[in-house]
Amino acid sequence: MRALRFVLVGIGARSRVWRRVLEEHPGCDVVGLVETDPGRLAGASAEIPGAVGGPSLEEVAGRVDADVALLCTPPGGRHGQIAAACAAGLAILAEKPLADSLADAEAHVSASAVAGIPLAVGLNFRYLAVTRALKMLFAPDRLGPPEFGRFTYERWRDGQLPRLNKYPLAMPYPMLWEQSIHHFDLMRFVYDAEPVGISARTFNPSWSMYDGHANVAALITFTGGIEVTYQGTWAGNWRTMSFDWRTECRHGIAVQREMFGDLAYARRDDPALTPVPLPEEEPWVDDARALLEDFVGHLRHGTPLPCPGFDHLNSLRMVEACVRSASGEGTVTLHEPEG
Ligand SMILES: NC(=O)c1ccc[n+]([C@@H]2O[C@H](COP(=O)([O-])OP(=O)(O)OC[C@H]3O[C@@H](n4cnc5c(N)ncnc54)[C@H](O)[C@@H]3O)[C@@H](O)[C@H]2O)c1
Known about the structure:
The chain is α/β, with parallel strands linked by helices and 339 residues long. It has helices at residues 15-24, 38-47, 57-61, 79-88, 102-115, 129-137, 174-191, 285-301, 309-329; strands at residues 4-9, 28-34, 52-54, 68-71, 91-95, 119-122, 146-154, 195-203, 215-222, 227-233, 242-249, 252-258, 261-267, 274-275, 332-333. The protein is globular and about 65 Å long.
């Protein structure tokens, strides 16, 4: 069977992971490179000499036979990329967030549906071993269903570092669109629940390097009555990062204290936490690899599309609800509660 042919669109920070994962996959080839920055395009083209390079997906798709467009571009302004992929019949794997507004993301999802093009979103955190193990702790014979939780993510994100993207420095709500989107998606995924209502505040501390609000505080109600208190910041004032997600369940608690691991649980009367063993993995790479495997499985064998765009809209609705709530709308209702 011939390899699946990928066109990589956007050759910035995130593309490095995808390039490595694609190059190491025996069933995938990079046949096209799209980048608006000529220097970056030239650098990548020198490293992948067989690939067709150009400044737009429309142009490159016209010069090379391909199967997939992998979008590693900033989330704003992807209309042309989505239209070009649909016109060329390329399946789409788009980095999160699918867009920088809910309306644009909805437009992308419906454009791909009309064209009959699968559209998946790069929600790699779903594929971490710690995420899978946490989800399993909520089984009825273990901790039982979650009822409430506290999710804190406190990070000094130096957005000036050369290895990091620069566009979030000017986004109106960089934390929400770029980072909380992962957290909201994880909550929906591990709790197997949809948001019912959100009340949020956002702000920027005096030392923040971001133009838009780097801090988010939210109270979120999910289906099943699960209540989550969320605090996220990219302007936490210590370079050492803190991640702490504690979930209270019928029989005890689950705690995840690192982004890529450190999972433990306790039943109510346990004197100490019990660590959950996790397999060794290479953060960012193994999770992208597992997501790619599911994406390839869908294209090759018709297995379910991972992280479909229409599902991602439910996480983006949470982001948008936070913006609306923080702008004065109070508690924003999403899904109606069950029953
Ligand atoms: N899943 C994750 O864990 C993760 C991690 C980092 C970034 N991301 C996401 O990946 C995406 C890209 O982020 P990044 O950090 O690589 O950003 P970046 O700014 O480093 O790279 C984006 C690249 O796209 C290029 N570009 C912009 N518009 C283009 C267009 N129309 N056509 C072709 N190229 C264009 C830019 O010149 C730049 O080289 C974002 O959506 C971001 O949220 C995801």
